[in-house]
Amino acid sequence: MPQRPRTRRGLSMWLSSTTTPVFILDDRRRVLFFNKGCEQLTGWEAGDVIGQVCDFVSEPDPTQIESLTGTLCPPPEVLQGAEISLPVFLHNRSGNQTSHLIRFFPLKNVEGRVERILGTFSRIPEPVALQPPLGRELHAELAALRADLLHRYAASSVVGCSRGFHRLMEQVRLAGCHNSSLHLFGEAGTGKEHLARLIHYQGPSRRQAFVPLDCRRLTREEIKLAVREVLRDAREGQPTRLSPGTLFLKNVEALPDSVQELLLEEAPTVLVAESHAPDSPSRSTRNISLRLMSSSETDLQAAVDQDRLSHDLYYLLTSQVITVPSLRQLPEDVMLLAQHFLESLNRDQETQVTGFADEVAKAFRKYKWPGNQDELKTVVNKARAACERSLITLADLPLGFRAGQDAQRSGPVQSVELVPLEDRLAAVEREHIELALRQAGDNKSLAAESLGMTRARLYRRMQILGMIDSP
Q1: Which of 51, 124, 250, 440 is deepest in the core (most CB within 10 A)?
Q2: Which pLDDT does position 100 carry in this prediction?
Q3: Is the distance from CB of 116 to CB of 107 less than 8 angstroms?
Q4: How many Cβ atoms are within 10 Å of 292's Cβ, its own excluded?
Q5: Which of 114, 157, 161, 138 is nearest to 56 (CA)?
Q6: By the 8 A CB rule, do 31 and 69 touch?
Q7: How many other CB atoms sit within 10 Å of the CB of residue 372?
Q8: 122 pairs with which residues across the strands?
Q9: What is the CATH number assigned to the segment(s) 330-409?
Q10: What is the CATH number of domain 14-130?
Q11: C-alpha pair distances (Å), 46 with each of 21, 22, 24, 51, 53
Q12: pLDDT tens digits for 365-384?
């Protein structure tokens, strides 16, 4: 007896129950179908996933749905009709990580437009044999790296793989274990305030507020008022989510003298500090919750030597000091950071940009990044806004970056040997008189007239300059 053809409902039931992981997206990257095999592989139920929009992002926490949907996001080329297979690191909801090959099949309507995308997972051995494009390679590396950083340092909002980065993160981890004062020293744009926030939310005061004050931007009166209020709330209030737990003084070398005195007066009764200065007024063992953090772009010892910072306050601020490296010192981390910034911009966007063209990666690695991470983030932001393809190319990079490239290619300005000013002025005057004489056909009267002086005065100047012999 001939077998009856499978009905559409029967096919749907079979796809739903099969252990082969199969999912379907619409042309807006929204999950329409997520079968039993996908549930078993990922640890997520269909009800949690269906309806979610897949953005090209890396979420290291496997308990967040973006950790899965970022993996399910198809490259833009699939929406243009291309079949693509890519290796991915899949994070199960339980925390296990496995290597898989994900295949995207565009499903077109009668007009040839992609309406649906069929996706399947298959297990592949490690290491991954296929070499994905740079954007997808960085995406997979970034996802794995952020999961590792979350596990090792309880942090995924900072990214890096270099020795210098891990050395910094170990210092950050240790700083989060206690409540003593901390100073962060490094160039502008290196993320000192972000690290201070990270340390605060890892530390004993994490259930209280982080209060940043920029000593360079606020007026003397504004800083003094704000510091006084923070100290008063810390002294009188009960620890809550709204009460201050950390006072962060950005650009502390610009702190006014009156505020320095205020901090030193209040330190014994309010601030947590393990001062290492003998006879410092901040020596105290009271268990008060307010922690003092600060940052600077210059060495604080220089500010002390120049009488811009109190000697006692210097010791109060520097129970622990972390030197934050510049981006020039972490060249291995540049592209990971760029990918991290790019993927954060992909969230909730209709179009997704997956990475950087090879020539952009070469330019980024060669550039010196005087503005450090802040400059890199700005460049990626502007390039992402200008990009109309799946990869950022050189044409998408902003004018400011290209001007910086040109300036670095030209090299440093050649130093000019200085000579005594009188010698330089005499040489200029001699050259000017010689020019006037040539134009006047060596007629001294005409030359004197063109120079705006008498003939007798011209003679005297020429004698002084050694152009003619004295009588």
Answers
A1: 250
A2: 87
A3: yes
A4: 25
A5: 138
A6: yes
A7: 23
A8: 101
A9: 1.10.8.60
A10: 3.30.450.20
A11: 12, 11, 12, 9, 14
A12: 999 999 999 999 999 999 99
Q: Do 41 and 21 form a contact (C-beta atoms < 8 A)? A: yes
Q: Read off the pLDDT of residues 192-242 as tens digits, 9 standing for 90 and up.
A: 999 999 999 888 888 889 999 999 999 999 999 999 999 888 887 666 667
The structural domains of the chain, with segments of one domain joined by +, span 14-130, 163-323, 330-409, 421-464
d(CA 104, CA 133): 15
For 401, the token pair is 């970056």
- pLDDT tens readout for residues 61-93: 888 899 899 999 998 889 999 999 888 888 888
> Against a cut of 0.85, is the pTM above it?
no
- Cβ(202)–Cβ(176) below 8 Å: yes
Angle 90-36-116 from CA coordinates, rounded to 5°: 75
Residues 6+ away with beta carbon under 8 Å from 314: 277, 300, 301, 303, 304
Tokens 């030597």, located at residue: 305
Q: Does domain 163-323 have CATH number 3.40.50.300?
A: yes
Q: Which CATH number fits domain 421-464: 1.10.10, 3.30.420, 2.30.30, 2.60.40?
A: 1.10.10
Three-state secondary-structure class, residue 344:
helix
